[in-house]
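Provenance and format

Records in this collection were gathered into a single text stream. Each protein contributes a sequence line and a token line. The two records reproduced below are adjacent in the stream.
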Amino acid sequence: TRTTDCLRGLGAVIETRGEKIFVRGIGGDRPSASQDVVDMNVGESGTTCRLMMGVVTAVPGIYRFHGEGRMHDRPVADLTEALIQQGVRVTF
């Protein structure tokens, strides 16, 4: 799914065992925390977009969020405004 792809992009290890999914995080320190832009393709998943926008604020780096179809028409202003108030730099 889009969420697991985005989490893997942060360096998380995700394993499926039967009907369960196990996620081993990275403790807020991306393995290659360089200035490389990390691609967050959320497809058409508004839930993934909103979830991951919050998650990446805990992991230093530069992130590019984009989607497909009508995803770019969906509202995220309230979330981005809240992140900006917390000191996150957002560029559209």
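Adjacent record:
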Amino acid sequence: SDIVPDKRLIIISRSLDTAALVDKEPKTQAGVRSIPLPEPAWSYLLKWKTIQKGDLSKLDLSQSNERIVCKAGFRYMHPENFSRAVVRFGKHYGFLGLTPHILRHTYCTMLSDRDTNPKTAQYLMGHASITTTLGIYTHHDDLSKDKKAVEGIDLFLRGNSE
């Protein structure tokens, strides 16, 4: 129920309390957000929802209020089981050390590498503080940007502010 098909959005408005196994409010208000998905991810999500609907209907369950990642017959997949599934996927496809948390770091770094405004990255990541986004999740690995930045300063100092 937290997807907006005509806008290709996922709405993040709750999280799972893994101790009590109930929905709860996100840690901070910054955790409530709308995430636009690129077309390939959106297409995959729609394929997954079709598969999930078939699996749930075999159990006489409706998909309307189920999570995107759930286990047949249950309203959720425990985060530890999801993490294990991601690790298995990574090993199978040669991405050793892959975890859901590493995927968050990768997403944030990719946003930075594409010159996304840091405040936009902070919003998409759901961080209350820009320091978390820039200091922990964004990893610098593009030397060509370093060179371009220095060249820009050089042009400015020479009086060419092109």
